[in-house]
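The material for today's practical consists of a large collection of protein records. A record pairs a protein's sequence with a compact description of its fold. Instead of coordinates, the fold is spelled out as a row of discrete tokens. We will come back to this pairing of sequence and fold again and again. Here is such a record, shown just as it appears in the course material.
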Amino acid sequence: AFAKKQGLDPRTLTVDRLKGELRERFLAFRTWQLGQVVRLWAQYVHDLWPDFTIAICQGSGMPPDRGVDYREYNDIPRLVHLPMIYTSSAMSFAKNVAGMREYLPRATLFPMTSTSMVVDSGWTASKPPRGIYFDFVTSALNGCVGCSHWPDLRRRFDMEYVWEVSRAMRDIACVEPFLFAGERPPQHVGPVG
């Protein structure tokens, strides 16, 4: 399919050429191809349930690192992006969410964080409970519709994480009208200092 769309002789395609000189063109084609599959799937779902919201769980957040351009299918109605941003620090998560917001400024984002040990491309991610608090608050401050987490199943449902998520939800709720509608926060909520 790639050779045909690009006008190339399929007999000349090798793994080395696809990884080398044709890499960018091949990744762009694969992104377009993925977008076509997502569009067909979304159309099928919306034909059955017109008001259904579709969530796409994808990669580690930032497309340049993954060779996928999420803008290819960002115009699908009622689409929510769920980037799996599994980092070991709250600051890395914050930078990634801010990058996603800048990259997809009008998209509905619902990032996922992780409380477990995740190994990906040579790095490990495990976040302390307080980091999860900051991940949820960061998501709200970046205009995301929510935040989710992948739990560490070995720890079961560690109450320290539950407590931090609860605290984050409480603190976000205090300023939610300001975050989502531009309304001033309640009188008792303000900057510290």
